Amino acid sequence: MxxxxxxxxxxxxxxxxxxALGFTLVFGVLGIVNMGHGEIFMFGAFIGVLVTTTFGLPLxxxxxxxxxxxxxxxxxxxxxxxxxxxxxxxxxxxAPLISTIGVSIFLENLSHHLFGxxxxxxxxxxxxxxxxxxxxxxxxxxxxxxVISLILMAALSFWLGKTKAGKALRAxxxxxxxxxxxxxxxxxxxxLTVILASAMGGIxxxxxxxxxxxxxxxxxLSMGLKGLAIIILGGMGNVKGAMVGGLILGLAExxxxxxxxSGYRDAIAFIAIIVILLVRPQxxxxxxxxxxxx
Length: 294
Hints:
- Helix 1 (2-30) packs antiparallel against helix 10 (239-259).
- By secondary structure, the chain is mainly α.
- The protein is built from 11 helices and 4 strands.
- The N and C termini lie far apart (49 Å).
- It has a domain at 14-217.
- It has helices spanning 2-30, 37-54, 59-86, 95-115, 140-162, 164-174, 176-181, 186-212, 219-234, 239-259, 265-279, and strands at 120-121, 130-133, 136-139, 214-215.
- A two-stranded antiparallel ribbon has the order 1-4.
């Protein structure tokens, strides 16, 4: 029982971590919280429903379609909701946040019109496959979710730290004007950042559909708020922190449901985050404000 719940918590935490990676990537480069990320994640889940359940196509096509659609949504988000504000002189620093909140509301309402309200089943034979290890049942989808989260974290860390494009992206995050003077195409890398973050949201949407066998238009808001909490817990803009923070939140929620009152699952988990932040305000892997280069 304990081992199975531990596996469930790691699975849920891995999904949270993938969502948080998209948040932390955008925040690390642009310094803004993209509140539209949760709804892009939700659209990725619905693309999976359309491909696998409605059209009966293979699961790998669902992943491919979700990545393409959510990446394009990320481009539209950056092009029409973020870039005009970034180029506008005298724009309030909260304007991009308000803009992404507007995008979030628009996408949620759009999903109601396109897909309809309520739960939509996500049926795929892969979600039913399992292996027995003694008395413990492990579903293959749980293993896949955990492995994908590790691969994405490792790939993102390697790309940011070792590749020319990743170093250029870090230069943009450090100082936009200096990077531009050094010949970095800042507009291209900012757009690339939002596209990559949105594509990761699409992947997470498919994984959530596989794990819970259902998606709903309201799932984006809840997941978006938890992704925000995770990057605060792990350290704003920190890839490793997003992964660890997601696992902590997933495990906390799972064990509270099993050994406590499920009605207080979200509240108690967020209280735990508040306690950690009181001890370490910069997050688990964040730098103190005085140490951050400006």
